[in-house]
Amino acid sequence: MRKAKVGLPVTILSRSKTGWAQELRDILSDVPYLEPVVQSNSEDLGSVVFIDENYPGRQKFLKGVERKSRAFFLVVQDGDEIPDDLIHEAVDDVLVYPFRKLEILSKLKLYQQVLMWSEVNEVNDSFHDLIERLRSDLELASRLQISRSPNRFSKLKGLQVRSRYIAGMRSGGDFFDVMSSPSGARISMVLTDSSTYGLSSAVLMSFTEIALKVAAGGGLETTQAFQAVSDSISKTLQDKDRLSLFFANFNREDLSMRYLNYGKSMIYHAESGGKFHALPRHGDEIHKLLNGKKPAEEKCIELNPSDRVVILSDGVLEEIGSESLISGWLDATREESVDAVLNELVFQVKDRLKKIGKTRPEQDCTFTVGDVSSNVFRMKKVSGVG
Fold first, then answer.
1. What DSSP element (H or E) covers 114?
2. Domains and CATH numbers, the chain
3. DSSP-assigned letters across all residues of 4-19
4. Per-residue confidence band for 4, with pLDDT thresholds at 50, 70 and 90
5. pTM
6. Which among 290, 146, 168 is positioned nearest to 227, based on CA atoms?
């Protein structure tokens, strides 16, 4: 069974008495990539149009015809001068009679590719317009989402902090909070991840007491906060209990951040315009065998205006599966706003959950992004940086 021909529908417009139209039809009937019906003198033009140089009203016809997605060949006699229609681009090419079959096939093959690429470009242009409309819609959706997300930490001096939270299915969970001294000179940040609900409750009670002390103007050093939590949970800590604890103090006077980080929470820092690097941990999660152990020496980093700090609980890493991926996203969005970075991180986790058919992560995911304000300045030298 002979396969139907597909490809280029052809139209022949001729009033010539030389008989070239029939000869051309005979040649085209053997071309495998042309449709079997070759139209002659039809108003329903095909993709390829052969028009006689003596066709009545040719120039008027060529000026008014739709050229899009069509190729026009002017058929001339051997020895004719170069036609004006070719010079002024009223037609795409000429075909010289008497015909040479290979020349016809070569020209048709070329223009088949030209027309195909023209269609591809049209699709690309259409797709580009669609992407631009979708991008505008996404930007609008992002702004609406940001406007609806409550900002718990809008009154902090010297720091812009935004945080998001996704509840997990395991017992226990994350606790994140920011506490500011009455003067605003010191800002304390805490992130904990408890393995059980009982431990989570004990940690919450402990930091309630710490918050009261901070509010009273006393404040706590990082090592004092660690010891306060350790003492508070000592009576409830069970053999299988595990606690990740990050506690930091940001000082507006010298723009330093002193911190302790036990467990699996990930802390990243990037200077203005620079790439992120992970801050080192102090040790493993806190558990019963380590309870009562004195904390390691706090670490201190010197911050500058427009620096960024990102704090993530280990639930984020469990869902993403790669610290290098997280670092890559953070670097790629370094110049974006705090809200934009937060939205990207949350989206990546939710997108992965959707792909595996889950609605919630295994454990809590806490995302926090903080920027040092660009208009603050250091009032004294940082001591103990290391």
1. helix 101-148
2. 8-120 (3.40.50.2300), 152-372 (3.60.40.10)
3. PP-SEEEEEE---SS-
4. very low
5. 0.60
6. 290
